[in-house]
Amino acid sequence: MTGVAEPVLDIRNLRVTFTGGAKPVNAVDGVDLSIERGEVVALLGESGSGKSVTLRSILRLHPAKRTRMEGAIHVAGTNVMALEGGALTDFRGKGASMIFQEPMLALDPVYTLGEQIIEAILRHENISTSEARRRALDWFERVRIPSPERRLDTYPHEMSGGMRQRAMIALALACNPKLLLADEPTTALDATVQVQILLLLRDLQRELGLSMLFVTHDIGVAVEVADRIAVMYAGRIVEIGSVRDVIRSPRHPYTLGLLSTRPHGGRLSGNRLPTIPGSPPDLANLPPGCAFAMRCALAADACRIAAPEAVEVGPGHQARCVRTAETARPAGAPAGVSA
Amino acid sequence: MSAVPDGVVAGVAIARSPGYWVTVLWRFSRDPFAVVAALVVLGLIAMAVFAPWLAPQDPFHGMSLRRLRPPGSEGYPLGTDELGRDMLSRLIYGARISLFMGIVPVFAALAVGASIGIVAGYVGGWTNTVLMRTMDVFFAFPSVLLAVALAGALGPGILNSMLALTLVFVPPIARVAESVTTGVRTRDYVEAAKASGAGALIIIRKQVLGNVLGPIFVYAMSLIAVCMILASGLSFLGLGVKPPQPDWGLMLNTLRTAIYTQPLLCALPGLMIFITSISFNLMTDGLRSAMDIKA
């Protein structure tokens, strides 16, 4: 936190509750997160940990009728929670825009890629169609789509998965957003294409000085693109810090568990991969204390009474755990999580 | 560097996409049944439009001395009807009203039904329940019965029977529109459009209409054949076109008394109805599969 420039994204105590079902579901339960200009933060977590919900909240994409949102979200000084009607749609795409997981589903099948990008540009800027087409073409070149002129006139189904995701990135960047949100942009792609897209995103991010919030469940991807990693569990950020700190010296037992479940090259064949016992808690029925307590080998009575506060365990490195003293071990020796 | 260098791909010719409708037309042209059916439909429409030039005789002028001539008689290639009017001319003129009554109610119902269905599907919730359950009430009656009841209540006449037919076709079109819209509304590309700043109006106009209109249009085309048969049925029952207007349904009714003396003559208007409706059906079938490029 330099404190000099205003952060591009500033989330304070965000709570998102889905009220559509029989019981309210606490999908996000008090998230604080800020992203500086030109910084990439990866939100890491398993399915249902609330990482995508957090991401969508920044654009207020959840249906208003069935969602209760509390807390504060500011994007480059704009109070997102206070936006209504036209101001909100103006903000979407221009203030912050989003890359979706599956480009085949996120691109409209009945319009050409060019039409969709031009549409998005014209929505936000008062320029001529031919000027917008030039801009779309320019973006197609920047995301390194070969023969961009021709590709502008193709339909999504005529492109390969990697090309579609490039077009999706061009679409998201077309209006020069201040913040780019990426919702597992490589999950639906082949492994080789994944690497290309990650490299492209990283190059574009450096070239344009983009601020980016990157949601993934893949630790390798997070390490590849991010400056900082925030680990989410049951709607809370349980640990946040620089990539180096979180990966080399994780301090929350959940992060420790996650890292120890990765298959390493040197693992003997025939050995079972370590797992975290149990399953994530029901978000409609969260325990009063730490949500991870029931799966945690280090859980103490204090863990089950109240949700632990974030503890500063290093410069810019925080963990929401009361037993960070016990998890402070030299790297490579994870504490006994798999009891 | 990442990505494929431009130079490598430059050698491979990437054909410019021919565009959606060109692709649809090309796919359509490979279905021989559909092409023949489409040509028949075009021929029928041309026949209706150019009826005054095509008809060899006045369709209203009868001669009682020449009643019920069989097809192939001299001067009357398809014979004469029970009032001695030239059958060929009446069949040609009959295409006008029959096609008109088959097509116009369907397009009117398309406008109304699609609006209802899209609103119900997009807004959802109570609006959906109220609109669609109202449609279901109309759905509960067999379409023939409903058309007859409505036309009977409104009184005979072309306009009234077209109104009745429109009302008959609103519920099925609304139901298809609603189900397609509901499917589209939850798609990722609608959320992606929202995420890039599209408001409800843009989404309805672009994402919903763009994706919904195709399937509904094809469905409506398939209803034209049904509508023609229903319209003929209404005329047959005396609820639609009034004599002496030449309409295939009405002709079928008036000629039915001659079924024992001139069976071939009686079958002619029915044959026209059959040819028209099967052509529309085959054409729609071809169009449906040709437009289904994404599948």
Structure summarized in a few sentences:
With 339 residues, chain A is an alpha/beta fold.
Walk me through what this model shows.
The complex is a heterodimer of chains A (339) and B (295). Chain A is an alpha/beta fold and 339 residues long. Chain A has two domains: 9-226, P-loop containing nucleotide triphosphate hydrolases (Rossmann fold, 3-Layer(aba) Sandwich), CATH 3.40.50.300; 233-262 and 275-327, no CATH class. Chain A is built from 13 helices and twelve strands. Chain A has helices spanning 51-58, 85-91, 103-106, 113-124, 129-142, 148-151, 161-173, 191-208, 219-225, 243-248, 253-260, 301-305, 324-327, and strands spanning 9-18, 25-35, 40-44, 67-75, 78-79, 96-99, 179-183, 211-216, 228-233, 236-242, 311-314, 317-319. The longest helix of chain A has 18 residues, at 191-208. Chain A starts with 8 loop residues before the first strand and ends in a 12-residue tail after the last helix. The model of chain A is unreliable at 331-339 (pLDDT under 50). The model of chain B is unreliable at 1-14 (pLDDT under 50). Chain B has twelve helices and no strands. The relative contact order of chain B is 0.15. With 295 residues, chain B is mainly α. Chain B has a single domain (18-58, 89-291), classed as MetI-like (MetI-like fold, Orthogonal Bundle). The two termini of chain B are 35 Å apart.
Reconstruct the topology from this structure.
The complex is a heterodimer of chains A (339) and B (295).
Chain A: E1 9-18, E2 25-35, E3 40-44, H1 51-58, E4 67-75, E5 78-79, H2 85-91, E6 96-99, H3 103-106, H4 113-124, H5 129-142, H6 148-151, H7 161-173, E7 179-183, H8 191-208, E8 211-216, H9 219-225, E9 228-233, E10 236-242, H10 243-248, H11 253-260, H12 301-305, E11 311-314, E12 317-319, H13 324-327
Parallel strand pairs in A: 3-8, 3-9, 6-7, 7-8
Antiparallel strand pairs in A: 1-2, 1-4, 4-5, 9-10, 10-12, 11-12
Helix pairs in contact in A: 4-5, 5-7, 7-8
Chain B: H1 6-10, H2 20-28, H3 32-49, H4 51-54, H5 87-123, H6 125-139, H7 143-154, H8 158-185, H9 188-195, H10 200-236, H11 248-255, H12 263-291
